[in-house]
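Risk mitigation, structural track. In case the binding assays with zinc ion fail to produce interpretable data, a predicted complex structure has been prepared as a fallback.
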Amino acid sequence: MVIKMKCPKCDGLMMYEKFLDMGESSTYYFYGWRCITCGTIIDDTIIENRIHPAVVLKENRRRRLKKVS
Ligand SMILES: [Zn+2]
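Fallback model:
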């Protein structure tokens, strides 16, 4: 898996992983992104809905921070 993604919260590196969700009667899994810095988890469903706005917001925020500092 070569896809890279940055955390929308802390801009850390996110790893694409398979998550297990253990329920009382069943166990299912999903694929998603986990930030290795702050632990934020984003699953594919969230990404499909927010990937584009999230990228735009992150880029704008980073540029502002660079100008301020
Ligand atoms: Zn993070």
